[in-house]
Amino acid sequence: MASSLYSNAQHVDFDSVLAMDDPGMVSMFEALVASGLKGFLGCPAVVYEDALVDFFENASVRNGVVFSTVGGQIVKISEKLFAESFELPVEGLEELSEMPKDAIFDARSLVSMTGEQINLSGRKNQMKMPYRLLCDIVAKAISVKAGSFNAITVEKFSLMTAVVCGVKMNWAKYLFGILKKMFAVKTKQAKGFAIQISLLLATVS
Q1: CA triplet 165, 180, 76: central angle to 5 degrees?
Q2: pTM passes above 0.85
Q3: How many alpha carbons lie under 13 Å from residue 58 in its C-beta half-sphere?
Q4: Cα-flanking dihedrals φ and ψ of residue 114, to 5°?
Q5: What is the superkingdom listed in this entry's lineage (predicted)?
Q6: pLDDT in tens, the chain (205 residues)
Q7: Among 47, 107, 134, 205, which residue has the least CB neighbours within 10 Å?
Q8: Contacts of 146 (CB under 8 A, 6+ apart)
Q9: Which residues contact 165 (CB under 8 A, 6 or more apart)?
Q10: CA 14/CA 24 separation, integer angstroms
């Protein structure tokens, strides 16, 4: 259980990456900062393994709030707490289906190795190196989906488009929605957010 949580954990040390001598990488990480995801992706990388296992085993969603028990203590995580803890934007698109088609069109060329539009059912090696890394970040740390990290999907690329093209996302609602899906009955949503949940557990316990 714990190992699967770690496999989907992705932490970004923004101070280090923004100091890199690589303009392409720096530009991509600056776009992540501008998107409002710095607090979520760059929060302190401390994982409380036993507490995490407890949390995931006992968690459920009631009235839009995540409840669990950790060490016999009730833990409650609301969307408001989630947003405030990671300083997430609370305005903008709430669903990826709302992503403007022209933004996706532009992003397909912007991230491309050749300048020609990438194939959204292809693999990430069509992309410039910084955007291959961005693809990994959105796959592991944001959408938290099982499967090949080399494959491009419409979902991953829509998330990338939000960052690359500066499309405003209500990251608080979107990411909290993914958290809630982790505890839905018969969910296909992989478990993740290990670092972020650890921080929340330290805050609310």
Answers
A1: 120
A2: yes
A3: 16
A4: -100, -15
A5: Eukaryota
A6: 444 554 556 778 899 999 999 999 999 999 999 999 999 999 988 888 889 999 999 999 999 999 999 999 999 999 999 999 999 999 999 999 999 999 999 999 999 999 999 999 899 999 999 999 999 999 888 988 766 678 899 999 999 999 999 999 999 999 999 999 998 877 777 888 999 999 999 887 5
A7: 205
A8: 190
A9: 103, 106, 107, 110
A10: 15
Our separate counts of H helices and E strands in the chain read 11, 3
How many C-beta atoms surround the C-beta of residue 6 within 10 A?
Answer: 13
Structural domain that includes position 98: 2-204
SS3 94: coil
Tally of domains within the chain: 1
AA identity, residue 141: A
Which residue from 182, 181, 174, 14 is spatially nearest to 91, judged by alpha carbons?
Answer: 174
Distance CA 131, CA 113 (A): 10
Q: Torsions phi, psi of 22, nearest 5?
A: -150, 95
Amino acid symbol at 52: L
Are 113 and 131 in contact, with CB atoms under 8 Å apart?
A: no
DSSP notation for 147-174: S-SSB--HHHHHHHHHHHTT--B-HHHH
Residue pair 79/180 in contact (Cβ under 8 Å)? The answer is no
